[in-house]
Specification:
- It is built from eight helices and 13 strands.
- By secondary structure, it is α/β, with parallel strands linked by helices.
- It has one domain: 3-Layer(aba) Sandwich (Rossmann fold).
- The protein has a seven-stranded parallel beta sheet, sandwiched between helices. A two-stranded antiparallel ribbon has the order 5-13.
- The longest helix is centred in the middle third of the chain and has 29 residues.
Length: 263
């Protein structure tokens, strides 16, 4: 069994799955680098983690700001050798009841979900390659495996970032740097708060975080859940797309809000 990481960076750590992951990893002897935009919520998560015995260092940084992210990560790694980086920060929007998704929505998701992950990952790659050790985890979505008709932009952003991660996993293999790709299904966070439609096999953020942590501790490189949806997606990909679209009508949804939220 691989040794558990002692120093972990988590982006999008102020709420939802990121907060749950921070609390799951919080323990005596462990250092957590917590990154998010919302300073007040981030500091509250840091206090919760510190109460569990972890040392916490926060960074109020927007992952879209490549220079700021790189500077913070370099400073953190210089004083705390980073074992694991979890690129979790992400945002979501889908069609409203009017079935309109704007180009601004799509560009925003691409900036955060794809470019933002690269902004986090690329600065740590060189240090981990030099050390010939390290672990990078990219939080994607099952929408990368089965695009959602009601969220084309989101699906594209997640498919893109997971393609990036898959290539990175092979690229870093000779350097003994592990890359784990995480494909969650529906998680009970702000992302689904205004979801109108089916949410099959909904997991709590805490359950998802503990499952991801167990898999990452074992250095799993493909983590997808819940298994019922994973197998349904695999079976569906063998069908002609029109038949798959017909079967997917039971899972259609829209979002009952105007302003998209982050994960």
């Amino acid at each position: 069994m691989p040794s558990p990481p002692s120093t972990i960076v988590i982006t999008g750590a102020s709420a939802g799955l990121g907060r749950a992951l921070a609390l799951a990893y919080a323990a005596p002897g462990r250092t957590l680098g917590l990154v998010a935009r919302d300073t007040a919520r981030l500091e509250e998560v840091a206090r919760e983690c510190a109460a569990k015995g972890a040392k916490t260092i926060t960074g109020s940084v927007d992952v879209r700001d490549a220079a700021a992210v790189a500077t913070w990560l370099a400073e953190f790694d210089a004083s705390h050798r980073t074992d694991l980086v979890i690129a979790n920060a992400g945002v979501f929007t889908g069609h409203g009841a009017d079935r309109i998704e704007t180009t601004e929505d799509i560009a925003w998701m691409m900036r955060v979900n794809l470019e933002g992950v690269a902004n986090v990952v690329q600065p740590v790659v060189a240090a981990m390659r030099n050390r010939r050790d390290g672990h990078i985890a990219i939080i994607g979505s099952l929408a990368a495996l089965q695009p959602l008709a009601d969220a084309p932009g989101y699906s594209a952003s997640k498919a893109g970032v997971m393609a990036y991660g898959e290539a990175l996993r092979e690229y870093l293999l000779p350097d003994k740097v592990t890359v784990s790709l995480v494909y969650p299904g529906h998680i009970e966070t702000a992302q689904v708060a205004d979801h109108v439609g089916a949410l099959p096999h909904l997991w709590t953020a805490e359950r998802a975080a503990l499952h991801i942590k167990r898999k990452l501790d074992a250095k799993a490189t493909f983590i997808a859940f819940p298994w019922q949806l994973v197998w349904l997606i695999r079976a569906g990909r063998a069908l002609p797309w029109r038949l798959r679209a017909l079967a997917g009508k039971d899972f259609s949804f829209h979002v009952a809000r105007d302003k998209p939220r982050g994960q």
